[in-house]
TrEMBL record, chain A:
GO biological process: peptide transport; transmembrane transport
Pfam families: ABC_tran, oligo_HPY
Location within or outside the cell: Cell inner membrane
Lineage top rank: taxon: Bacteria
GO MF annotation list: ATP binding; ATP hydrolysis activity
Keywords on record: ATP-binding, Cell membrane, Membrane, Nucleotide-binding, Transport
This protein's name: ABC transporter ATP-binding protein
Organism per entry: Skermanella aerolata
SMART domains assigned: AAA
Main location: membrane
Topology in the lipid bilayer: Peripheral membrane protein
From TrEMBL, chain B:
Entry superkingdom: Bacteria
Species whose genome carries this gene: Skermanella aerolata
Pfam family, any one: BPD_transp_1_N
Bilayer-crossing regions: 12-30, 99-122, 134-155, 167-188, 227-253, 273-296
UniProt name for this protein: Glutathione ABC transporter permease
UniProt membrane topology term: Multi-pass membrane protein
PROSITE patterns assigned to the protein according to its UniProt record, in alphabetical order: ABC_TM1 (PS50928)
Length: 300, 306
């Protein structure tokens, strides 16, 4: 249940989509790919524009030409996202078979090139291995290689590092950032980790209960969050130089997006709540600096 | 691999030894007198006694069993009391028909089971799914002779597409194989459906779609390869089950397989033949399982034989 989720990715930009579990981040990503099972999912209003085409107006066949070709996607669980019964090489090669007319040898060359691109050594041997023979970090690199096989213009990364340990997380994110610089693609990075956002993203979109509540370039957002929810998220990050003590948390739970109260969905948990918040949803509005937020009583 | 095979073969020999022992003891306990059977009703007590001595039936159980085993390792499965021929050639002569019916039945089972199971899984919750589930339930629960006679009536008597019974040409094979296939297909379609439904929920299926694979490719390449893994063990079991003879189907269609041989032998208390077919069935059950275990790693690279 998404409502008024609007944001733009510029060529070569990394946009972070943040919010707590269940706020609709992954649903947004899956909608871009049009991978939500339908029924029950449907789009009542709105559009998803990509390079001037409305993805929602494409038929299934044209959409398949987009997936894995112009738009690549990687997922949260590298351990289960690769097919256990096919070799890594076969699975990367499949993306090329589906979307290009390259011959067998050219495809093999390209696979080796991709393995090198994502930093996997001994590529020739690795291509012949099965997913269970690789570590989580390597599997995520394979997923990236697969998603990048056809040089997509947009990479949707749905919590690509959540399941990996911290050092591997940093490697994968550095790799994504480096690939963005080299290939000039845009990345939609879905995460709940604000540290990751601060380090790797150009823009941030904060979601709450299926709605965008604030969006801004990274620096202004971290320096001067306007929506109380964003402010609460930022306050709950531990600081290395700060005083020790109990970390602040945001009390309460996210309302079920399917059963939203009439006003602002954050009203019940908001320290700045006004009577108006409970009856009327604030629109997403902002200045020319690209900083927009949906709040009647923003943090100053 | 060699060590694995060696261990499995030792296991197999032990299992078969156990089977011969249990069958032998059970048949020994039967209240039947083979010597009297062979001699005939009018024979004198002296004749019966001499036959008993000749066959070693007067020896204690353990001596009889060791004699049987001794003959067995030399390839001698004994002689039929009734047919006056060796058991080995008797079983051997029935083997081609049984193997043929087994192959036909397994092909039918797989075609029916996989086809219906995949259809049901892909159309989960829709009318096609319900239809397949109801049909498979009928297939699982219908008795062999009912399905057999029904097919016979429709396709052999009414439509006259196939011969009524017997053995020899491909046309003879169709109806008995189809009967077994319809019944087994019920099981296979249920297994395939549940396994396929489970696989279609996996993350790697989402990956395949995100890669731009079409629905057909997703189902028949990405999902099917994973979904058939549990079926391999089932095929292994079926090899054993069909080798012990499809008794009812063979009777309905007059198919000269091991099933009919078994049936006759039991009716006539032809102990050496019963021993022979039991042992043959056991051999094929063990072989079927071994075959399934050897094939599994080819389909699923995560399985290693150790």
């Amino acid at each position: 249940m998404l409502d008024g989720v609007g944001f733009t990715l510029d060529v070569g930009a990394v946009v972070g989509l943040v919010g707590e579990s269940g706020c609709g981040k992954s649903v947004t990503a899956m909608s871009v790919m049009r991978l939500l099972p339908s029924p029950p999912s449907r789009v009542d209003r709105g559009g998803i524009r990509f390079d001037g085409t409305d993805l929602l107006s494409l038929d299934e066949h044209a959409m398949r030409d987009m997936r894995g070709n112009r738009i690549g996607m990687i997922f949260q669980e590298p351990m289960t996202s690769l097919n256990p019964t096919f070799t890594v090489g076969w699975q990367i090669d499949e993306a090329l078979r589906l979307h290009t007319n390259l011959g067998r040898n050219e495809r093999h060359e390209r696979c080796l090139e991709l393995m090198k691109l994502v930093g996997i050594g001994a590529a020739e041997r690795r291509l012949k291995q099965y997913p269970h023979e690789l570590s989580g970090g390597l599997r995520q690199r394979v997923m990236i290689a697969m998603a990048l096989a056809c040089e997509p213009r947009l990479l949707v990364a749905d919590e690509p590092t959540t399941a990996l340990d911290v050092t591997i997380q940093a490697q994968i994110l550095a790799l994504l950032s480096d690939l963005r610089d080299r290939l000039g693609m845009a990345i939609l990075l879905i995460t709940h980790d604000l540290g990751v956002v601060a380090e790797y993203c150009d823009h941030v979109v904060v979601m709450y209960a299926g709605r965008v509540v604030e969006k801004a370039p990274v620096r202004p957002l971290f320096a001067n969050p306007r929506h109380p929810y964003t402010a609460g998220l930022l306050a709950s990050i531990p600081k290395l130089d700060g005083e020790r003590g109990v970390l602040p948390t945001i009390p309460g739970m996210v309302p079920n997006p399917g059963n939203r109260p009439p006003g602002c969905p954050f009203a019940d948990r908001c320290p700045n709540v006004l009577p108006r918040c409970r009856v009327e949803m604030p629109p997403l509005a902002g200045g020319a600096d690209g900083h927009a937020f949906a709040c009647w009583n923003p943090v100053s | 691999m060699a060590a694995y095979l060696a261990r499995r073969i030792v296991q197999a020999v032990l299992i078969l030894l156990g089977v011969t022992f249990v069958t032998f003891v059970l048949l020994y306990l039967l209240p039947a007198d083979p010597a009297r059977q062979i001699a005939g009703r009018s024979a004198t007590a002296a004749t019966v006694q001499s036959i008993r001595q000749q066959l070693g039936l007067d020896l204690p159980l353990w001596q009889q069993y060791l004699r049987y085993l001794g003959n067995l390792v030399q390839g001698d499965m004994g002689r039929s009391y009734i047919q006056r021929t060796g058991v080995a050639p008797l079983v051997w002569s029935r083997l081609p028909a049984t193997l043929l019916l087994m192959a036909g039945a397994i092909v039918c089972e797989l075609v029916i089971g996989l086809g219906a199971g995949i259809l049901a899984a892909v159309r989960r919750g829709k009318p096609a799914d319900t239809t397949v589930m109801v049909a498979s339930f009928l297939g699982v629960s219908a008795p062999q002779f009912v399905v057999g006679i029904l097919l016979l009536y429709v396709f052999a008597v009414r439509l006259q597409w196939f011969p009524i019974g017997g053995y020899g040409t491909f046309a003879h094979l169709v109806l008995p194989a189809l009967t077994l296939g319809i019944l087994g297909g019920g099981w296979y379609s249920r297994m395939t459906r549940s396994s396929m439904v489970d696989v279609l929920r996996q993350d790697y299926i989402r990956t395949a779609r995100a890669k731009g694979a079409g629905e057909r490719r997703v189902v028949y390449i990405h999902a099917l390869r994973n979904a058939v893994l549990p079926l391999i063990a089932m095929i292994g079991l079926d090899i054993g089950i069909f080798m012990s003879g499809a008794v009812v189907v063979e009777s309905v269609f007059g198919w000269p397989g091991i099933g009919q041989l078994t049936w006759q032998a039991i009716q006539q208390v032809d102990i050496p033949v019963i021993m022979g077919v039991t042992l043959t069935a056991a051999v094929f059950i063990v072989l079927g399982n071994l075959l399934a275990d050897l094939i599994a790693p080819l389909a699923d690279p995560r399985i290693k034989l150790r």
